[in-house]
Design a protein that fits this description.
The chain has 134 residues and is an all-alpha fold. A two-stranded parallel sheet has the order 1-2. The protein has 6 helices and 2 strands. This is Transposon protein.
Length: 134
């Protein structure tokens, strides 16, 4: 089974979604409240309907280990909590593309847009990424 640290923000959010669904919240309300896609919440709802919160808790977080160590993740978290301008971007807003570029400049690794979002989410800072693609 894949590792699944219970305190990882993505796992906490998944379990919160499951509890909200069990309490009767609609898929749309859960998706909006937790910044999840409708497709993800529908998948969680199906899992909860079939096996309850235990089934949702058993979902792994997947993927291989990141090339970024704890110090790198701490630096990224600090960068996200500041202005993108401090890192040479034309406005203060953080976007997925800007974070991707910053990580590539600083650490020499290029990640997919999905993994960039996952990094920010796992740091508890996904909400700071603008929906803009620039």
């Amino acid at each position: 089974m894949l590792s699944q640290p219970k305190t990882l923000p993505s796992v906490v959010r998944r379990m919160t979604a499951g509890r909200m669904l069990l309490d009767g919240a609609s898929v749309e309300v859960v998706a909006d409240a937790l910044h999840l896609s409708l497709q993800t919440v529908r998948r969680y709802k199906a899992i909860v309907s079939d096996g309850g919160l235990d089934a949702l808790a058993k979902m792994g977080v997947g993927g291989r280990a990141s090339a970024l160590d704890r110090d790198a993740l701490d630096w990224i978290a600090a960068a996200l909590q500041g202005s993108a301008r401090e890192h040479g971007f034309e406005s203060a807003t953080w976007t997925n593309a800007r974070l991707r570029e910053l990580i590539e400049r600083r650490y020499g690794v290029r990640y997919s847009r999905v993994y960039i979002w996952q990094i920010a989410t796992n740091l508890g800072l996904g909400h700071l990424l603008s929906k803009s693609r620039r």
